[in-house]
Amino acid sequence: MKTLRDIAEGFFDPLDRAMTHVAPEIDAAEIARILSVSNGVAQVAGFTDLHADELVRFHGDVLGIASSLRPGRIGVIVLGDTGGLRPGDRLRRTGRVVDVPVGEALLGRVVDGLGRPLDGGDRIEAEDRKPVEQPAPPIMHRDPVTTPLQTGIKAVDAAIPIGRGQRELIVGDRQTGKTAIAVDAILNQYDTGVLSIYCAIGQRASAVARVIKDLRDGGALERTIVVVAGGDDAPGLQFIAPYAATTMAEHFMARGRDVLVVYDDLTRHARAYRELSLLLRRPPGREAYPGDIFYIHSRLLERATHLRDEHGGGSMTALPVVETQAQNISAFIPTNLISITDGQIYLSPDLFEKGHLPAIDIGTSVSRVGGKAQLPAYRAVAGNLRLMYSQFEELESFARFGTQLDTETRAKLTRGQRVRAMLTQNEHDHMPVPEQIAVLLAATEGLLDDLEPGDLDEAADTLRRAVRETLSDLAEDIAGGEALSDDARARMIEALRDALGQGKGNEGDGDA
Predict the structure, then answer these.
(1) Can you give the pLDDT at residue 22?
(2) How confident is the model at residue 288, as a pLDDT?
(3) 395 close to 416: Cβ distance less than 8 angstroms
(4) End-to-end alpha-carbon separation of the chain, Å?
(5) C-alpha span between 429 and 437 (Å, rounded)
(6) Which residue, 70, 214, 242, 368, is most buried by CB atoms nearer than 10 A?
(7) Nearest Cα to Cα of residue 273 among 319, 234, 330, 228
(8) Which residues are catalytic?
(9) What is the pLDDT of residue 506?
(10) How many whole angstroms from its chain centre is CA 428?
């Protein structure tokens, strides 16, 4: 007689054998659920193991970054539209941190902060993918900044020079020409081999489209990557965009290439981070805005450098843009960036309103590194240019209060006005180095003092033509890095006098 145990074993044995043969493989993935959703941020729960800055995936291929890890609740920065997300929806881990594609395939393309194409072109076949957050190169991996990055702008190249591997801040009120300075710097790299990345953060779509058009018309788009996180995009995309652009640049830098990166602008980047911080309920003043702003910008800009040859030998030059209000250059965010960078180009709204373009305030602007990388020939004009111009501006402000000026003071004012006129330059009018030196030398040496203000533009064109036609050999030496000797300087001045009709053979013509 069978016992109850025998009957039970006889019942389960066939079932066990059947399960052994038909049991499918289970694809296990850790999932969680959304607790709440706000603009750009979701609070989730359910994960038992999650890394900081790990990517998570919501339904509809919407990605997010695990940012605030707390027991029982995780704050996720959503990298996309949160309109389709609802409390109770599922999300799952991806097992990787946020990364972007890198390599040659990105050149000439317009992408978002995740490297996804926005220009309607083909899918990007990247060489590799790298995390957007990377540690800055150690000090021992860095080399001094010794090679100039010519912008084609006289006021910058002569008075506020930039070197490859430098971080130079562009600061000023809105609508003073900050973006124009940065775009001109990109356009002027047409024959230097320098690659460029333009990162637009929180900008209007029309403004970004205008920059892309300028790059395309100037033939620079094919050697430029445009990273766009517009004002209508999620704050998370605006936050990671500059880090993504830097990672793309580091790929080329590690391979010995020189890269110019423009961050336009970091004021909007700070606002996006403030929005995310408040939505994630981080403690204001210490772990959020404004306490962390210095850290998020310093860990970004410290990645720009010139590497030693054994570590790649490339360079990354950073031109961050920051907006001030009512010329308050000592505000919190501009002050932070001034302390992080190697100098600043300050654009004055007063100069802009007077039509002195580019509206660069030479007295307030400074370059702490670029002077060592400046071409030697600039020393013939740059040595006393800043001092002369600053003295002129101070003298001009005092002269407004007086009605009678002595002859020497009037002469200094005239000389300063001619120098300021020669520093004026139209947008996208990039001037080669020899022509810059010739024009500024003529102004500082007094060759333009007797000309009427309305004749200065024509005189500048005459001087530039003389350099190309009469001084071509000297111009080649200057562009090649030769210093301007006393004999060469005297020869240039004499040729410029002849071009302006002031040579010895023209003396006395007015008395005939």
Answers:
(1) 46
(2) 58
(3) yes
(4) 146
(5) 15
(6) 242
(7) 234
(8) 368
(9) 52
(10) 18
Q: What is the pLDDT of residue 398?
A: 78
φ and ψ at residue 84, rounded to 5 degrees: -90, 5
The tokens describing 341, both together, are 């960078």
CA-to-CA distance for 322 and 266, rounded, in angstroms?
5
Burial of 355 (0-12, 13-18, 19+ CB in 10 A): exposed
pLDDT of residue 391: 83
In contact, 115 and 91? CB cutoff 8 Å: no
pTM across the whole model: 0.90
Instruction: Give the position of tokens 């021992």.
Output: 140
Residue 11 has a pLDDT of 44
Separation CA 112–CA 226 (nearest Å) = 8
Burial of 385 (0-12, 13-18, 19+ CB in 10 A): buried
Dihedral over Cα of 154, 160, 163, 169: its sign: negative
Q: Helices in 302-342 by DSSP H: which ranges? A: 332-340
Domains in the chain (CATH in brackets) are 31-97 (2.40.30.20), 100-374 (3.40.50.300), 378-504 (1.20.150.20)
User: What tokens appear for 438 in the block?
Assistant: 């010739």
Q: Which residue has the tokens 């359910």?
A: 46
Mean pLDDT split into 10-residue runs, the chain, 512 residues: 50 46 51 92 91 89 90 92 92 92 96 94 91 95 96 95 97 96 96 96 96 96 97 95 98 97 96 91 70 89 97 97 94 93 96 93 91 90 82 82 77 90 93 95 92 92 95 94 93 95 58 38
CA-CA distance, 343 to 166, in Å (whole number)?
A: 9
Q: What does the alpha-carbon distance between residue 426 and residue 406 come to, in Å, rounded to a whole number? A: 34
Looking at this protein, which amino acid is placed at residue 266?
L
Q: To 5 degrees, how large is the angle CA 330–CA 271–CA 363? A: 25
User: Sheet containing 169-173: which strands, arranged edge to edge?
Assistant: 110-111, 224-229, 195-201, 258-264, 315-324, 169-173, 343-347, 366-367
How distant, in Å, are the alpha carbons of 141, 147, 264, 316, 388 from that of 313?
9, 12, 27, 10, 38
Helix (H) or strand (E) holding 394: helix 379-399
* pLDDT given at position 4: 44
CB proximity list for 299: less than 8 A, separation 6 or greater:
133, 136
Among 312, 219, 327, 333, residue whose Cα is nearest residue 269: 333
